[in-house]
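>> Question from a student workshop board

For tomorrow's exercise we were told to take the sequence and the ligand below, predict the bound structure, and bring the output to class. My setup keeps failing. Could a helper post the expected result so I can at least see what it should look like? The ligand is adenosine-5'-triphosphate.
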Amino acid sequence: MTSLEDEVMRTRAKYEDRRRRVEEEERRKRLEGLISSDDGGSDIDDAFISAAQRKKEKTKRRMLLKSALNMGDNETENALKRKAIAVEKAQVEAKKTLLEKHAQLVQEQPDDHDEQDRREEEQRLLHSVPQGGALFAIAELAQGVTYKESFKTGWRPPGHLRGLASYEIDALRKRKGIVIDGCECPPPIGSFLEMKFPGCFLKALDSRSIIMPTAIQMQGIPVALSGRDMIGIASTGSGKTLAFALPMIMFSLEQETALPFKRGEGPYALCIVPSRELARQIEEVINYFSESAVKQGHPTIKTVLCIGGEPVGQQARAVQNGVHIVVATPGRLGDLLNKKIMNLELCRILVLDEADRMLDMGFEEELKNIFSFFKDQRQTLLYSATMPTKIQQFAKSALVRPIVVNVGRAGAASLNVLQEVEYVRGEDKLTRLLECLQKTPPRVLIFAEKKSDVDMITEYLLLKGVEVASLHGGKDQRERHEGMDAFRRGDKDVLVATDVASKGLDFKEIHHVINFDMPDDIENYVHRIGRTGRSGKRGMATTFLNKKADVSVLMDLRQLLMEAEQELPPFLREMGDDTEVVSTEGGERGCSFCSGLGHRITDCPKLVGIHTKTTQNMARSHAEEGF
Ligand SMILES: Nc1ncnc2c1ncn2[C@@H]1O[C@H](COP(=O)(O)OP(=O)(O)OP(=O)(O)O)[C@@H](O)[C@H]1O
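>> Workshop helper replied:
Here is what the output should look like for this input. Compare the format with yours to find the bug.
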């Protein structure tokens, strides 16, 4: 046996032992009733909770969080150390004279004028970002068409919730961590039954062990069913797909029942997503519920997948046969619309999943083109786990009386993921990767920025006898599909992928996400690690960093780890003090342009990128026009 294999065996034994101890600890806690099996379930109907009960719940949550973070001896030790430092600081403070305290206060106080100047500069910067106009229909803009009223639907919340006072509804939201912005928002609903879904949906949910709605579903589904435009923000793996898919199917069923769709008609609902794999996954969810409805005697809901890499002819025929729901990626959808194979004349519901990512990934022009095909008002639902302030502002201006539903901070990492960060030199990455694979049982997802790195890692792991599949944009559709499927089925233990697999994909039982390198922006990091720790389960993420990582993204990562109460490695700890970066705009945390917590808008690398690009474009067009 080589020394490396020897080392790997030892590491594996170490982790096996650790895992066994963690499992034993979990079992013990469960027995003690610290981990309740209905976490995420609803108890929304009992509006009033006693103070004692609330205290008990708070303690339970704290214990849950502690176990979610998988606190080991080291962490506990560090927490004690932090506490000791805080006590020491407080003692020093107490010994200071009043004069000393005053002098310190004056020193710490920001100069009012400086602060004012900074606020003005930040505002100026925020408004100086060009808004490309995606989400607006050009024809409507040109004709000055604006919609003032939301859609009216026949759906109503159950009577006992309609009768609640607004402070009682606010209390329900508060208990579930739901924050809303927008007028006349329907109340959150704590059960699928009370959302008035047909029995076949309830049965289908039940057979997938989906009993109670998650927080985003409690509020997002009533908003969608009452016809309102919305922006839904909730952490990765929190069930956003059903929050938009169920209303889409329900409305389509209602339409088909009232007046069956003929050849050439439809789609009635359109869902646009950034990757082919995500589109396929959403189509499968929709088909599952549609089929369950058919079994109970409801009409068939036809869903067509319109994605690149597949023959256009087949998709065109399916669309032309009459379609209720289309799930698409922007490129192929634009193609079908431009060639007049599809139209959006009847389309009334528009969903953009991972909306901010699509704009960030440069799909803006495609989206602008697609929006120009809308002939009438539509209900727009935007969803993501990350939604930078600027995109929210812009989206709000394009939607009709939108309601923003927030569960947790936009851009926060899932608290179900234990995040570890390691300093690994470039030349040591592969061997360390092999060791890291032993940290958890399969399945493991490895992310790398470059396609060439994905291929290189895959080859290395194959040589080492690991059952591995890979996925990136350079592969043909058949290879992409086969790799994904093998991993989904569990035939492969490891999937190595670029960011094409980082958004929205829901693989069962991913225990570990390894970032072979740090992505360029913090939002991608949040989406990547969010492939584990889904649906209330726990997972682990390991990120390799070295000198090549961008300082700004490291500062964002540092704050993100602190926010999730994760341990900082020494090299990240040394990068700054533990104070939060607070934007001057309304006390907002971090950058008011992107989701980064580690910098202000004045230091935002993304903004610099946009300004550089705009300046270059202007210079190019001036040159072309002979200036
Ligand atoms: N109410 C629920 N109870 C239990 N499990 C649920 C519930 N709703 C959805 N799930 C399951 O949770 C998993 C994650 O859901 P989903 O893919 O919709 O997350 P998401 O919020 O869209 O995540 P991402 O931000 O990564 O796209 C899925 O396997 C889904 O079946």
